[in-house]
From TrEMBL:
PANTHER family: PALMITOYLTRANSFERASE ZDHHC16 (PTHR12246)
The protein's name: Palmitoyltransferase
EC class (word): transferase
InterPro entries reported for this sequence: Palmitoyltrfase_DHHC, PFA4/ZDH16/20/ERF2-like
Entry's EC annotation: 2.3.1.225
Family: Belongs to the DHHC palmitoyltransferase family.
Chemical reaction(s) catalysed: L-cysteinyl-[protein] + hexadecanoyl-CoA = S-hexadecanoyl-L-cysteinyl-[protein] + CoA
Record keywords: Acyltransferase, Membrane, Transferase, Transmembrane, Transmembrane helix
Sequence ranges assigned to domain Palmitoyltransferase DHHC in this UniProt record: 94-222
UniProt xrefs under PROSITE patterns: DHHC
């Protein structure tokens, strides 16, 4: 468990939960209960919408609190004098690099985060919306969070449109309530459109990074794909787990533990 004490990240996390709770409040109170009071669709939409909210919260909390793949610090000070020595720095360590800030060797694709102040394995970027780095161990949950936000935004827009196209004729005709419902519906529509488009752009970028095996850091450095001929499903399985693809949507631990439990420092330093 880890929590980065970054003011910007903490504010973004709070804004995220405020937006989700506001969407839940508007959909449940002002749309479903106000426009579908006597319909069997009302309990269905309440359960379905809140299930997505629950899954979103679980995925987001895991992305926020789980270790993204922090490279452990050495127990003793490491002598880097042999870093460029061919005989001491053999072929096995060829892709390992040195971090002068952490004063340790780091495995391939690991990069230093100036906010977390540690090196992260397969670091993609530091995301303020989860107040954490997106790395080897939590990229799955970050991707799930994006997908659930998209689903919630689309679901909210659909329910708003349905409430406008098929208004409830037997509902209360109080003008103040009708105006309040319209105001909340418009605000939620704007929120869903803005957050939905923003999250879709990030999700497309994440899928591109996974399927083409190139993190955002590597793209900036113009290194190209890390493994050119790696199958797409194998790349997805590395992030989402070795279980059935249907389980990839659930915020549960299904990562390949054998792969992640390999010691980071597997050689003497």
């Amino acid at each position: 468990m880890a929590f980065v004490k970054d003011p910007c990240g903490i504010v973004c996390v709070l804004v995220t939960y405020m937006a989700v709770l506001y969407a839940d409040y508007v959909v449940t109170h002002w749309i479903i209960l106000q426009t579908m009071p006597n319909s069997l669709w009302a309990p269905f939409h309440v359960v379905a919408f809140n299930t997505i909210v629950f899954l979103l919260a679980m995925a987001h909390l895991k992305a926020v609190l789980l270790d993204p793949g922090t490279v452990p610090l050495p127990q003793i000070r490491i002598d880097f004098s042999d870093l460029h020595s061919e005989k001491n720095f053999g072929h096995e360590r060829e892709e390992w690099t040195m971090c002068t800030r952490c004063e340790t060797y780091r495995p391939p694709r690991a990069h230093h985060c100036r906010i977390c102040k540690r090196c992260i394995r397969r670091m993609d970027h530091h995301c303020p919306w989860i107040n954490n780095c997106v790395g080897e161990r939590n990229q799955k949950y970050f991707l799930q969070f994006l997908m659930y936000v998209c689903a919630l935004a689309v679901y909210s827009v659909v329910l708003i449109v349905i409430s406008w196209v098929y208004p409830c004729e037997d509902c209360h005709t109080d003008v103040s309530q009708a105006q309040s419902r319209m105001m909340h519906s418009v605000l939620l529509l704007l929120e869903s459109a803005l957050f939905g488009l923003f999250v879709i752009a990030i999700m497309v970028d994440q899928m591109h990074a996974i399927l083409y095996d190139e993190t955002a850091v590597e793209a900036v450095q113009q290194k190209g794909p890390y493994r050119i001929h790696r199958p797409k499903m194998a790349l997805l399985a590395e992030v989402c787990g070795r279980g059935h693809p249907m389980l990839w949507m659930l915020p549960c631990t299904s990562l390949n533990r054998k792969h992640h439990d390999v010691p980071l420092l597997s050689h003497d330093v």
